[in-house]
Specification:
GO terms for molecular function: metal ion binding; metalloendopeptidase activity. Residues 249-400 form the Peptidase M4 domain. This is Neutral metalloproteinase. With 572 residues, the protein is of the alpha+beta class. It has twelve helices and 24 strands. It folds into four domains: 11-137, no CATH class; 150-239, Roll (Nuclear Transport Factor 2, Chain: A), CATH 3.10.450; 245-385, Elastase, domain 1 (Roll), CATH 3.10.170.10; 409-567, Orthogonal Bundle (Neutral Protease, domain 2), CATH 1.10.390. Helices cover 27% and strands 21% of the residues. Strands 1, 2, 3, 4, 5 and 6 form a six-stranded antiparallel sheet that branches. A five-stranded mixed sheet has the order 16-13-12-11-17. A five-stranded mixed sheet has the order 14-15-18-20-19.
Amino acid sequence: MLPEATMPEFFQSIHFNVAAETDESLKGIGSRPLVMRAGPARAGAPTAFDSDEAAARFYLSNIFARDTRGSVRGLTAPQNPQIVPDLQLRDSQQSPFKNTSIVRFVQTKSSIPVFGSRAIVELDDKRELLAIDAELADVEGVASIANLSPRQALENIAEKAAVKIEKLDRVAPPTLTFFRDEDKNNWHLAYYFLNVPAAPPTFFKGIKSYGGHRSIAASSPELNYLIDAHDGATLMYWSSSPTLVRCKGEDEDGHLREFYGEQGPEGTFVLLDTLRRVRTVDLRGQSIHTSALPINAVANAATVFENCEAAISAHYNASLVCDFLRTVLRRDGIDGKGMELVSYINCTSPADEPPPEWHNAAWWKQRMWYGQTKDGSGKLRSFARHLDIIAHELAHGLTEFTSDLAYFRQSGALNESFSDIFGIIISNWDPAQPYSGGDTATWTWQIGPGLGDKGLPLRDFADPTRTGDPAHMDNYDNTTDDNGGVHANSNIHNKAAYNFLVAKDAQGAGLFTPLDVAILYYQTLMRLDKLATFKQTLDTLLNIAGVYFAGDPQRRAKLAAVSEAYSAVGIT
């Protein structure tokens, strides 16, 4: 069966499902009927390909070659039909519902993506075809070379939004795309800008509000724009996120916090921030090992949340960490791919201690879990109130998705130390100075104040010996306990990081901003391997800093200061 066009004529639609095809038709595109797939794969079948992408391209090529429309058949390469040169892989992922793979492509012309195009292939566990859905276009009548620079296009956005261009200096560089104007029925080469913090005045007219509060689209707009790369015309713009609701409520420490949620069913409001992809769920005293974890976010009847202190602390602090990842490290979530951050409050672990207390907060199974402890009055208070602890635990997730440092000896100590470093930086970050992070002279250098033995912190960057931990390689603990002393020995690297953060020049001025240090440590974490040592970390850090400070008149002094920060603790 040949596909029929179901979209406007400039996009050609393809829908193919093996269940609706004859055996002869399936044979023609190199696939077997469903009833013949229970046994082993046949010789020469697509399972011989070494990737889902290769199998998907094989089927697409065969389907396209049978199509009578020139715009579809033209996507194949006659000398090597398996290439399908004008399709660019977007991603490949396992279906969360069944044992199949979903491979997604976008159409290109002259290596430029076509906006609104797609080719999606579903494969079974033997890489046999299950289904194809595609929307492909015949792009014509438009040049593939831009006349305007990205900066000129951004200036046009600033003018339309009536803001100064300096407000948009941190907008990520755009990509080029071919865009079809449905109203005028013609193609454009366009710059595609994401998450631009400016909106035309007319954008706010149609935005609804809930509970008496303006949505984020009105109070903190972030829009995506398509700007003609030839004449600078604004082709299209829209909000980059669903409409959120501004909410507020008191956290565990009695602070009134403002945060974003979403309108839930039947007029409720829930702790689900779709902009940051943060969801907060109440485990209600159940064990973290329960087989039926709830998934619904904490709900409230109004935008002012009451009696939800633990949930608000978890939701608000997780949002702060996500903002730091996005704005400072330019990272899309913990995994770098926009994963949802789920936090569970009111957790217990009967195997560790009797409920309802659980003295812990942990990153585990790619979620955050918060226990609680009784205060002097006997009231349960959540560990979600500690931003430094939350940032520390979520940084373990960051490590998991970057270097994945092995939790043993020096690499394990580095795993702990990088979490401490980001815990200190995030908890002390000055939001009023987002481009520097603030002045470290005002910082608190303790991780978990009052949570250690005898009222001491868990760790102290400025003086690790205060908690009985080593501050120099001369005192490195060669123990077999605690995975090779990962918590104790992390303090040596913590002290080096402290020296780095507070380093001064000859005139007594700070050499580095917290922004500098955060970016350099993040890039270092991205490059380390699983079994990295303190020395390898220093070498990698210096290598990255050499490029980062290129052209800086204080480059030599700064590199020397990094070396001295580590040398002072015996890492050379």
